[in-house]
Structures are given as C-alpha cells and as structure tokens.
Amino acid sequence: MSDVVPPEVRPKPAVPAKPPNVGAPSPSSPFPPQGPGIGGGGVSAPPPSSIPVPIGSHGPSHGGAHAVSHSVGHSAGHVGGHAAAAHTGGHAHVGSHNAGSGSTLLGYIGIDTIIEQMRKKTMKTGFDFNIMVVGHSGLGKSTLVNTLFKSQVSRRSAGWTRDDKIPKTVEIKAVSHVIEEGGVKMKLTVVDTPGFGDQINNDNCWEPISKYINEQYEKFLKEEVNITRKKRIPDTRVHCCLYFISPTGHSLRQLDVEFMKRLSHSVNIIPVIAKADTMTIEERQEFKQRVRKELEMGGIEFYPQKEFDDDMEDKSDNDKIREAMPFAVVGSDKEYQVNGKRVLGRKTAWGVVEVENPNHCEFAQLRDFLIRSHLQDLKEVTHNIHYETYRAKRLNENGGLHPISSNDTQESNL
Questions:
Q1: What is the pLDDT of residues 157-171, one digit of tens each?
Q2: Which DSSP helix (H) or strand (E) runs through 245?
Q3: Dist CA 221 CA 223 (whole Å)
Q4: Facing residues of 344 across strands?
C-alpha cells in the first residue's frame, strides 16, 4: 500500500503590527496621527475624495460646528455600518460586510483617527446649546441656570432688577453668552419666559412659548432650503426646556399639565421641582411619586422618551433617570464655609443646604444628566425628531418650500 502524503499546510501570513509611531497624537503635536510614509515620502497622501467625511455631516454647505455637533454623538456607532456608505458615497466600507464573517485587516489603516479629527474640528468651531426655562416667578429659575453653568448667564444677571414689574403677558427674553472650558467653546443661549403663570387668567399662556419654538424651527428650515446656504447655519432651536414645578407637596397645577401636554411633542421637556429645601425628604419623595403618576395618567412624555432609546444599554441608563425624575433641586450662586471647604449653598437658621451634596438635593444628578451625559443627545433629538416633525409638516402643508434668495432671508429677519 502506498503511503498517503498529507496536503501541504501553509502557515497564515502574519498580520503586521501597528507601527509604533502611529496612534493617538502626542499632546504637543498639532497634527492628527498619520500612517508611515504619508507626508514623509514613500507613499503619497490620499486624494481628497478618499478623506473620511464626519458621519452625519450635511455636506459642504453645512460645514463648521453645526455639522460636527450633530455628528459627534453617533459617529463611533455608525462608522462601520450602513450609514457610512450613505455619507461617503458607498466606497468607505468595502470590507465591512465581511467583518461579521471574520475578515481581518492586513495592516493599520487609521480609521480610529476620525474621532480625534472631529474632536479637533469641534474645539476650533465650538457649538451651540439653547436652554429655555419656564415657570412662574419666584421659583429660582435664573439662580438655577447660573448654578448649572457656574457663571452669570441668566437674563436676571444681564440687567434685570427687582424693581421690574411682572409683564401682563408672557414675554420671551433670550440672552447669549460664550463660555469656555478645557479649550471647548460653547455659545449658550438662555431663553426666559417672564409672565408665565403669573396672571389671574392664565388661559393659553403657553401659546407665545410654542410660537417662539416653532419660529426657531422655521428660521432654520428657511436657511436649509436657501439656494446659497451659509457654511454654518445659526442654530437658535430650543434644545431643552426646564419646566419648574412649584413645591406645593400636593399635586401639579392644571397649568403645569396643560403646558407639558401641549409642548412635549415639539421640545425636550425636563420637569424639575424648584426650591426642594422647603420640603422634608419624606415629603419630597411622596411629591415626586405623585407628579410621576400624574404625568403618566396625562400621557405626558418628558425627556428622555422611551421610544428614543437606541439599545438596551441606553434603555438601562435612561430607565434609572426616568425613575429619579422630576429632579428636586436647589440653586444658589453663593459660597459658604462648611467643614473647612467652600461650597455652594443656601444658609438657614439650622445650617447650610449644600447645592452639590446629593444628600441635600438632586442638583448634582440634574447637572450630570443635562450637561455631562445627555447634552449631545438633547441636540440630536431636537434635530432628528422635533425639527424633522416640524419640517415634514411644513413641507406637506405647502407642497414643498420654494428656495429663497438671500434678500428674502434678510427681509424675514427684520
């Protein structure tokens, strides 16, 4: 019997290791990392058509911070998925469909540098964030906003005095500031609504607020359909509405229910219980449960809405937030000495209520939620859900908006 010769087994080619000089850029380097040979001879730089485009950007006409601000939040999740093809012409992920079947890159490409590129561009251009505060006078709206951003950014800080009379109708006052932290610039606009809920007859007092919100959508829409669009469309759309609930300890007022029911589908509403230090811990918990029950019975949706959870991780995180809402908060821009350290708080006869102490109130939870974890998502829900709903409605009503010239835009802004 002849010997059986086994087939020749060829070893798999080794995957080249990532070059030691390629990776995250050093703090001193002003340029993003590059592969070997790029810019240094040997391998020419890629043509402009192959340079990655930030996921979610709106093309050349929407360059600058606006395009980046809507793309940062989802770029990592989309960079290898079907969205990448839609935004890069369908050629950026030739091997992405094989990724699930175990295809392996034969060397370092540099896809991971897209995040650093977007970060640098965002830091150069900055971004916008517009927050509206609604509630009757005396609930500490201005103080809370100043406490959130640790600066004098409210309307009251910009020239308001106690001698000013409460307006007979609801007014809309917007004040903008540029604040900077860690090299990141943010244009913050605080929209106040003096006069809301302060009249004997408060029928339809939400209408001026609803009108203002829709006017900002309309202004953005007109810029989008313009033939010669601006490189960066100014974003004045309201990204978040803090609704202040009076700490009665009993139940919501009918005005509270009506306002949130009518505006919850056009803006991100975050209800907060103002001046929580006027209630005991037990009273606060009972009031929070009662408010949540009334919101549920009224079919009122507040941010973060359940249907907008992207995955199970988001659902788990947002469920914890929804269970803690409405946040019972205390605001103060004054510092006091407590146990050898300076803290923001409100001084009373029996001690200091520390604003950032989670045992005293839920201000820290609101701040972390609003600024540190969900700020970008608030902007994206505004653009992708509320603005798109308004846009679709307007286009259906008019059979499509006709492009307008720059002269028309200037006249409409007068």
A1: 555 454 556 565 688
A2: strand 240-245
A3: 5
A4: 335
Q: What is the pLDDT of residues 341-398, one digit of tens each?
A: 999 999 988 899 999 999 999 999 999 999 999 999 999 999 999 999 999 999 998 7
Q: Considering Cα of 245, then 246, then 249, then 251, what sign does the dihedral take?
A: negative
Residue 248 has phi, psi (to 5 degrees) of -75, -30
The partner residues of 153 in beta bridges, in order of sequence, read none
What pLDDT, on a 0 to 100 scale, did the predictor assign at position 170?
80
Q: How many of the other CB atoms lie within 10 Å of CB of 264? A: 21
Bond from prior residue into 304 cis (ω within 30 degrees of 0)? yes
Residue-wise pLDDT tens digits, 49-65: 444 444 344 444 444 44
The neighbour count for residue 61, using CB atoms within 10 Å, is: 15
Site of tokens 């058509």: 49
| Residue at token pair 């340079």 | 51
Question: For position 59, what pLDDT does the model report?
Answer: 44
**Rounded to whole angstroms, how far apart are CA atoms 130 and 124?**
19
Q: Which of 111, 115, 114, 108 is nearest to 37 (CA)?
A: 108
